[in-house]
Amino acid sequence: MKKEKLLYLESLRGFAALIVALYHGNLMFSDSFLEIPLINHGYVMVDFFFVLSGFVIAYNYADCILKWRDVMTFQTKRFLRLYPLHIITFFVFVGIESAKYIFETRAGIVANNPAFSQNDWSAVFGNLFLTHSFTENDMTFNDPSWSISAEFYTYLLFAVVFLIIQKPLFRFIGSMIIIGLSCTLLIHYDGFTATTGMAIIRCFYGFFLGVCVCLLIRAYAKKCPSFFGFIGLFALGVGISFVDVLYSGFYAPLFAIVIAMFYISKTTFIHELLNLRPFVYLGTVSYGLYMWHVAVWWVINNGMKYGLKIPTEYNTDRGQSFLILNDTQSMGIIIVGLTTTFILASISYHFLEKPINNLRHRIAT
Fold it and tell me: Which ranges in 30-144 belong to alpha helices (H)?
């Protein structure tokens, strides 16, 4: 039986993707947003994606994995959801590396990271097989895709665990064991913000927190007072704002609690607001927002740097050079970049993701 789609969670996913895009744009073009903690700490939104993904996957598939064929079907569906846009953006970045190589060899331009130095053959194979989050030492090609790599194999772990363990209580215990082991490793190796190496363990930690919350809700939760939704949204904003103060390992549990509060609370004004069509559409194209924005920022940055000859300076704290712009110019670039990213995300959704999703949904679970 097809489950009711939780549109308000879809909208939250869209806002999270928008914050990540703003975070990376802010790093490249502007200091003005750094005074807004929600944007300055946008990198923790990846943990929100992991937790939300665990919740939604358990919500939709906990009762569907009964035999090995179901595992293969489930993983095929996840592959069709993630891989097409990943591989398209990967080849876009291969083109970017090739352009860098041409400019370096023919125009004598010196890049901060020479072409195909970090993005070498090992990185190519890692991206092709979605292993780059745990086989590479640094992020490669399309930086955000590390989380796609980690999540793909986390899906496989989920499917195998839920096949081997059929009873809900034991599934919960098994998921808690994975959370405990992951948390121990992340503490030992300081991996709560890892984007390679321990990144897949970071994904296990957040994803199975989402799974556990979903299992608890299915078993025990009743409708809670409507103000829980407001408290959840408030906790989300405050928690992200104080990310430098609180221990980084607290954020995935915070996100799990927030998602649970939204789900079990009665319909509120916040729910109705998040269910509005424009916000839901933002969530619908959120994967594209997440996967396209770095390419957009790169093109804008280098177009202004080399085409318009905008001066740059090197920021030692960020470890990169950035354009010298006033606040008005930075804001203009951010608006243009976000608009361009949204257009690309919409195009890729309607002409790539949606047709493949239609195929994916026709595959029997």
Answer: 37-40, 45-61, 68-106, 121-128, 132-135
Mean pLDDT calculated for residue range 156-183: 95
Across the strands, what pairs with 321?
314
Contact 348, 288 (CB under 8 A): yes
Average pLDDT over residues 293-299: 93
C-alpha neighbours within 13 Å on the C-beta side of residue 153: 17
Could you tell me if 259 and 213 are in contact, meaning their C-beta atoms sit under 8 angstroms apart? yes
In angstroms, the CA 290 to CA 360 distance is: 21
**What pLDDT is attached to residue 42?**
83
The Cα–Cα gap between 257 and 329 comes to 39
Q: Long-range contacts made by residues 63-66, C-beta under 8 angstroms, separation at least 24?
A: 64/365, 65/159, 65/162, 65/163, 66/163, 66/166
Looking at residue 229, its pLDDT comes to 58
Burial annotation 230-269 (CB, 10 A radius, 16+ → b, else e): bbbbeebeebbeebeeeebbebbbbbbbbbbbbbbbeebe
For the chain, what are the domain ranges?
7-362
Once rounded to an integer, what is the mean pLDDT over residues 210-224? Answer: 80
Read off the pLDDT of each residue in 344-350 and give the average, rounded to a whole number. Answer: 97
**What is this structure's pTM?**
0.91
Name every residue whose Cβ is closer than 8 Å to that of residue 106 and which is 6 or more positions away in sequence. none
| % of the chain with per-residue pLDDT over 90 | 52
Partner residues linked to 315 by β-bridges: 320
Could you tell me where the beta strands, DSSP code E, fall in the chain?
312-315, 320-323
CA distances (Å), origin 211, targets 61, 122, 206, 265: 11, 33, 9, 18
Q: Could you tell me the CA-to-CA distances from 75 to 140, 157, 158, 167 in Å, in that order?
A: 24, 10, 10, 21
